Amino acid sequence: MLIREFSKSIRESKKRVAFLTETVALGDQQAEVISSMTSFQVRRVFGDLNLREDSTEEWKKIKEDFHVFVLTPTNLHILLTHSVFFMVDLCLLVFDECHHTLKSHPYSSIMKDFYKRNQNVAALPKVFGMTAVVPGLEYKQLKNSNNIDEQLRVAIAQLEESMNCKMLTASLKHLKVVNEPKAIVFTFPPAKALLELNWDMFEDYKYKLEPLYREIGLWGICLFLKIKLKTLETSAEPSSSLIDNIQKFILQIEEKENRKID
């Protein structure tokens, strides 16, 4: 993981990492991954910051206690604007979905107002941006274009300028290849098969749902049955014995897995 490469700056120089995400949900996911894969203390910074006159001292303590800050770009912009955070406090600045720097967006403001205007170039953090989007271009435009190479070069150059970075990507010929998604259809077994179902015969029954079992195991089959159960419960003529049988079977799976499956 890239963040580990900055361990010396984080531990010895007391520099920090800022990881920017567009949404709270993505931020939570990234924070969990960073926490599980490193020994650094991770702080989530979402929602209203409620900055006060004494916030500088409060955040000084927070910056001492935490190494990695996962936050929305708006919140980092606010912290920088109020001089609670400074660019030189960071050793690494990560942008998720970095193509937004080409728009009227907090990403763009962070780079223009706080990164590029900073005269202490040697103390500025390294910048790492991630995106799967060709900035300013849609796939249909590229697919139907006769000068795809030139359009991509222009778009990439603009992103490099806005991020003050060098872009690394797949070769241009690989960008033209789009893999079709793999579709798997699961057919629910007839009611009679479920009425006869019990835990002892599950080894035989599982092969009727072999693709599902192979992909996601017992809990996947349990989830599949729960979805079907909701359909049966709202049907015009639900079979109480069938519903009871499915409910018992779900309970058996959950007990075997030793967890509740939602």
TrEMBL record:
SUPFAM superfamilies: P-loop containing nucleoside triphosphate hydrolases
PROSITE patterns in the record: HELICASE_ATP_BIND_1
Molecular function terms, GO-annotated: ATP binding; nucleic acid binding
Cellular compartments per GO CC: cytoplasm
Domain (Helicase ATP-binding) ranges: 1-152
Protein name: Helicase ATP-binding domain-containing protein
Organism per entry: Arcella intermedia
